[in-house]
Amino acid sequence: MLPSPVRAAKVLAALYEYKVYLEKAGHYKDKPFDPMEFWWLNDN
Amino acid sequence: MNKTDDIEKKLDPLFNPRAIAVIGATNNSNKWGFSTITSAMDGFKGPVYPVNIREKKVVGQKAYKSVKDIPENQPVDLAIIVIPSVYVVQVMQDCLEKGVKACVVISAGFAEIGKEGLALQDEMMAIARKGDIRVVGPNCMGLWSATSELRAFMFPLRVKSGPIAFVSQGGNVGGAIVGSGYDRGVGFQRYVSCGCTADIQIEDYIEHFGLDPEVKVILAYIEGLNDGQRFIEKVKKVTRKKPVIIIKPGKTEAAAKAISSHSGALAGSNTLYDVVFKQAGIIRADTSEELLDYTMGFLLQPLPKNNKVVIVTPGGSYGVLCADACAILDLDVIDLPAKTITEFDKIFPPRWSRGNPVDPAGDRDFPAYFKAAEMLLQLDETDAIFFMGFGDLSGVPDDFIEHMEHFKDADGNYDAFTQALLNIGSEFPQLIHRWIKQYKKPVLTTTFTQETPTLEEGVLHASLTGSSCQGISRII
Lengths: 44, 476
Known about the structure:
The complex is a heterodimer of chains A (about 45) and B (about 475). By secondary structure, chain A is mostly helical. Chain A is about 50% helix and about 0% strand. The two termini of chain B are about 50 Å apart. The chains are: A mainly alpha (about 45), B alpha/beta (about 475). At the A-B interface, helix 1 of A face helix 10, helix 11, strand 17, helix 15 and strand 18 of B.
């Protein structure tokens, strides 16, 4: 099991990797970056 | 019909069948046909027809010698086939004549065993294609669909409904991940053990999941792909709408050999997969634990605007571990702005770290830690914070809590430090939610509990205990 600081850092790195990908893919070309766009708790 | 309608229509009989037949269902509890029929009957509301050439009744229900013997006015959308491979071709012919729309072929002994098995698989598929029968497998463990509460699975699957869809080329690994998800409160809308992928490819499932509004995060365990180009083209369209997280083993020659004999797939170049996954926006996880960590991260955290982070820790070594991991992962552990250092000088004792990680060096004023974290979230210079060492006390041993009784004074009251510690547990998730909603930045929390974090708590936090050296070596 990874110690939590490392696990937590890896999670954040994955989130950032996805944001960078979306940016490069033109996801924010026609709309501003919304950090909460994929936040599941929006619906729950 | 456009392509979107096509993929939805193509896979709908798998996930929302009106009635199912279990071919090879049996009363013999030593056979997979028994656990498959009992799983299929657990939850699914439509008719489940046992098919067995010898037994007249299976688990108390009338059994049919062939799927064709099920009365004409009782259509069967999905057949689960759990019989020796040599009989599957004939059974597929029966399914074609009955008008079955989809089959889950659990039986093994096809492409994964080599030339002879591949020939059998081709023969089976030639019949399936005549009737446009969609086929999951062969050599798979089955599937789960939350919409129809269908456990078309070869053993009882611990699964709960939720926002995840998952396709796995490994049935055992997939089942274990779904089970771990269950323990962590992560529910699944769909789960498919896809086996040899003779018909429906992994990218078809991912495309289908991408269209389902109930699915928020897509997971896959992939050993090899039949058509890499097709996979990339399809998955690229999905990753622009929702995250796709994949485990792809095969970094060594030993693993590549094991993959070939397991699923009949070619492992391919690991480096190539890394590059291609990155281009397609796929997040790669190395372990099932990591897969679920990322899943919970995507569900519970906002996306960071940039990579600038601050760490708040009650223990210096945790700060070191976190800073090290961040640096390796290209997260920027920023220098604190001078104005923030001045502000923190007012709330922390002089011995505090005066830098990032923010370490108040054992200060007993707990509210100051929380105040500092909130001040950091308000800074334009930070995109996310790590807030370590607080949260749920549920994993702390009872005798430790009992030991805290000794900290009560003559009037039976705890000192402020202990009281604050005890109060944190119940209020903590709400506080983190408030911060995330208010500041729209990720707040990664870690606790002293040994419990695995669960989705119900609504906060992604991980145990501070664990093997730290192993952790660091695994990410280097």
